Fold each of these.
Amino acid sequence: MQTGFERTLVLLKPDAVQRRLIGRILQRFEQKGLAIVALKLVQVTDALAREQYAVHEGKEFYEPLVKFLTSSPIVACALEGVEAIATARKLMGATFGRDAQPGTIRGDFGISKRYNLIHGSDSPETAEFEIGLYFSPSEILDYRPSDLPWVYDLNGPEPV
Ligand code: IDP
Ligand code: MG
């Protein structure tokens, strides 16, 4: 990975896949300038869902959340870019569609306080942990999108 870049894990949850929104949601990240460096369809197991959401164990929404995430296939995706973690979460919007700003993914496609379409890592530590849950190192591809010199100013030591 190039200096100054960061990776984040994004999951398109079962509602996004069932509602045939994979293409439209991935397009948001592509058009922003984030690069897809890993991508697959996954049937999440009960154990994987519990591990991913361990921080929420014991909360009243934890069991419904595990049930939701395992109810149908999801799309797992690793995205790369400058401040990719915060940028992806801005594109996603607030946790629930009713609260999320129009123009964000959740704000444009969702209304439920449970089915909220998408997950994004919330810190560098979480991103590393979560990418590791879904991808082996060989599934994460290091490549240089050909438009990169027009997405960022790459003339200095760090991409700007
Ligand atoms: P985030 O997805 O915006 O980071 P978190 O607070 O980390 O939100 O919660 C993780 C997931 O748990 C949410 O995306 C949502 O699916 C679910 N969740 C969080 N809070 C609630 C709640 O109060 N009711 C139902 N589900 C919730
Ligand atoms: Mg979270």
Amino acid sequence: MTKYIFVTGGVTSSLGKGIISASLAKLLQERGFNVTIQKFDPYINVDPGTLNPYEHGECYVTDDGAEADLDLGHYERFLNKPTSQANNVTTGRIYQNVISRERAGDYLGKTVQVIPHITDEIKRRVRLLENQSNYDIIITEIGGTVGDIESLPYLEALRQIRQEFGKNNSLVIHLTLIPYLAAAGELKTKPTQHSVKELLQTGIQPDILVCRTEYKLTKELRNKLSLFCNVDKKSVIEAIDAKTIYDVPMYMLKENLDKIVLKKLKMKKGKEPELIAWKEFLGRLKNPTNEVKIGLIGKYNELPDAYKSIHEAFVHSGAANECKVSVIPIHSEELESSDLKQKLQLLDGILVAPGFGERGIKGKIKAIKYARENDIPFFGICLGMQCAVVEFFKNVQKLAGTTSAEINPKGKNLVIDLMPDQVKVKNKGGTMRLGSYKCKITKGSIAAKAYGKLEINERHRHRYEFNNKYLKQLENSGMVPTGINPETGLVEIIEIPEHNFFIGVQYHPELKSTVENPHPLFISFVKAAIKYKASNEKA
Ligand code: GLN
């Protein structure tokens, strides 16, 4: 039987349930278990696809086209395994399903209620992953904080599951905060005591406490927590603030979180976690021999989570190159009126980020022109690639009225246009071109060299595309389409071969970069930035 671990959060949000879940999963995976992680989000949106990045950070996309919470990105980056639609469920999706079943008459005249109908649907979703693979352990992260109104149906479902599965087959880890009061010079346990009490009121006794803290937990403090929260002493786990999220599995290993979990679930220990690849990665990450500055041109820079996967992909590819990548966020709107040279001249590479809508586009196009003319390594992702195409037709081909239909649908030369299957789409949720598609790469291109193969699969999330009416005009122009979808003929990659390193991709490579498999395009981009920096230093 598959065993279940539930992770709840107390005291405050943003304690890092996703990272703790991913770290525990990594340790269990290293011990030889087949593990996956799912996330339940208590908001009413059916998925985060319609959420503004300022609200909820980046929208992550899975191979099978789910628009999902960014924690799924952490799960994939840690476990080096893809997630799917079933790994993220929101309250909105649960209600949507129950309501459509009600409309279909499935409830046979019964009054549809939170208990048992919503809780039954939650329980069904919890078990959905069991059919996917022979998982030994499924970790379920319950979003939100214990005490929130929105979390109540999940906690009730969890209480029922514990009853049904029994103690040996499921356990609850409660992640909480032990704040440090500078004036008293003390770590405080009271908020945790209250949060555990709150959890107890829903009928759930946590088995393990994971305590986020700025300072080490003393033995006395652990004993106090154990006594007041009714958790055995060994199950009070310290989660001290880490310099990098990638240290957390090592910290959890030291605290024996994996061993305690396995003992409580009455499972064999498996082999000792060696974490060879992980430790090698950490070694390279912490001992860089070089440093480059990459400008991240975007419009959601106020919230770094909006570009989470891009930041992490630079951590992975930086380590692969033994190079510290300093990502410098640059607001595209600021570039519209400021001195471009002053903002961009110290950069070793420029990445133009994905995005939606017209705001900030002018600044992105100006930055691309600067990168192209000054031979600075350039990497455009999704909207970044589309802007590179517009910039090229506008400033190199000198095509009047060049634009993207997203900027001006009435423009004269729409080199980027709405995909034909998007023309009639009215609903915004889940209607983009989403998920993994094949792409064929041209031999000898930057992409071919980076990937080391000519056929790839990458993830997408967009409505607009390169307008193939203008393909002919690219011939001998200096910009080359080097990646094409073999089924639809859609341009997926463009490059400027004469340039130092100039590549734009319609897909999102950042979503597939993991600790153990840093993305090849990011590795090549960082390499190009290192080379560019060295040549500048020589000159
Ligand atoms: N807004 C563009 C489109 O929909 C690009 C999307 C993106 O960058 N993810 O095609």
